[in-house]
Design a protein that fits this description.
Four copies of one chain form a homotetramer. With 175 residues, the first copy, chain A, is of the alpha/beta class. Chain A has a domain at 1-62 and 117-165: Rossmann fold, CATH 3.40.50.1000. The first copy, chain A, has six helices and eight strands; from the N terminus they run αβββαβαβαββαβα. Chain A has a six-stranded parallel sheet, sandwiched between helices. In chain A, strand 4 (56-60), helix 3 (66-75) and strand 5 form a beta-alpha-beta unit. In chain A, helix 2 runs parallel beside helix 6. Chain A is globular and about 50 Å long. The interface between B and C is medium-sized, with 32 and 35 residues. Strand 3 (37-40) of chain A pairs antiparallel with strand 2 of chain B, so a sheet runs across the interface.
Chain lengths: 175, 175, 175, 175
């Protein structure tokens, strides 16, 4: 945990997988639906806290669903990469564009298709219900499940590492 | 708990946050949806018990979703304030309109954007899955999770504090 | 439990509440929806086992939702009473129509608005997540939660009480 | 477990029930819906790992829902048998078509209508939340619940039995 906090305080860029991170990994479909996802209102407030504290936020997903754009827009996330097989390559592009270093990058992912980013990040955080192959290689495993406060828990850790109190009353509208 | 029961018996106005209180904090969306929420039928019966026993009921939410109006209408809740950043200000307006005092007001909330109301209420109750920043400052933390019987549990406590038995057979239609 | 099994073997009519019994008590809505419910495929197979073994099955609900008719039709349940405040009265009508006695009637319910039927049934069974007021007065509390195998668990108990093995391979189509 | 691993290494054909295996057994419906199901993104990745490693994959379901075809198509599953009462008969047809033997066939099922296949398979695997009648006769009961990583857990076991590491980074798009 000491190592974790040492690394957290240098983070400037938070990169998030979509399914299993913003959601609980569930895809709800009927024959006509493009696929409902379940988001968590507390995770949404977490993204707002990141933005208020000047973190860069990006989504990198293997999925190509339009719901990713819709959720990103609702939360004001501008960097959205969809349908990505090679997540390492696209991560490097994002880092180059933003002039962000490996030491300043954290990745939140839940499955083995996220692990390709490992060489170019400082911390890989997995939710408690991540795939075992992902948890084995993670820097840290959260107490929360994906889509159930996982993002918020890590946001709180990031803020604390920078001496920002994440428990203060916060005036905001929900999404 | 003694303190809690002492305060419960003076309550006349129950103010509720929406997401995470009426719901489990989940927002279900597809690219076309305005966002489904999951409500609990037992919480609905709790609202009816409040009304039958002459409590005033109000919703104060940071969200601006139309589903809030729909659920409020189904449950006969007349005071609905949406898209609210500063919940303290709007709470005072409600209290003034109804001529209800601080000592007569209870608030049910689950996140740090609810904490602004603390100066003007008697009791702040958080569900067991509330954000940690919210639980730390709550008067009491329920056994139930938000959207999973949380409202009903607190309604039962309110009725018991006024010597009304909340376990008696109750003839009513569901919503 | 001896008493329970003694009574189970005389049961001919199974009366079920809808929300919290066929479902987990959740009502999923967006501004346009009439309210989605979540059913359990194993409970559906339970209803088929009841029918195959010549039990009478009826739904008595306080709700007036069209989804009750739809689910009942899919499962071949013919006796469906909706929007009922006084469940005792309607239960007596059903019993009269079918010439079924109190000793032959079991009721599955999860909240205090189901308790009015108590004078005219042999057994009242509540799911493990029923309201406390309902559990206190129940003949038996199931291991399963409502909408998560509760109906099936009680069906299995009913079959066993009549020396039918509910664990045998069963050829059927799902609904 | 030794016996299980001995048998796993001969498997070439994975046959899956649908409801309770690809899903958690929930059927979400409103009066107009054909029935939403909840799928798990990690199970989807499991199907892709099976295909990459040249397993044959088939769905055999008692349900006739169109959502089965939709999910199968998204995952590239070609053998889909719907509305099946007698699962043993259709299993034999699949085995004949593919020239796959009993010893090479595994079945994933969660209820007693799946048990008819027992005479013609090597292994019957049930999720931890399967019906008790199904668990009693299963070769093995998974740690995961149906629709919550159950398929993926068994895929990992299959790969390990063939000395393939299922925990390596894997470049793929999600579905």
């Amino acid at each position: 945990m000491k190592n974790l906090n040492d690394k957290l305080k240098y983070i400037k860029l938070v990169v998030l997988d979509f399914d299993g991170v913003f959601t609980d990994g569930g895809i709800y479909m009927d024959p006509k639906s493009q696929g409902f996802r379940r988001f968590d209102v507390k995770d949404g407030l977490g993204i707002k806290l990141l933005q208020k504290n000047n973190f860069k936020v990006a989504i990198v997903s293997g999925s190509n669903s339009k719901i990713i754009d819709k959720r990103a827009e609702a939360l004001g996330i501008k960097i959205v990469k969809k349908g990505i097989s090679n997540k390492l390559e696209i991560l490097k592009e994002i880092q180059d564009d933003l002039k962000i270093k490996k030491e300043e990058t954290i990745f939140l992912g839940d499955d083995i298709n996220d692990l390709t980013v490992l060489p170019n990040i400082s911390l890989f955080i997995a939710p408690s219900d991540a795939h075992i192959g992902c948890k084995t290689k993670a820097s840290y495993i959260s107490k929360s499940r994906g889509g159930m406060g996982f993002i918020r828990e890590i946001v709180d850790d990031l803020l604390i590492s920078k001496n920002v109190d994440p428990y203060l009353p916060f005036e905001t509208k929900n999404d």
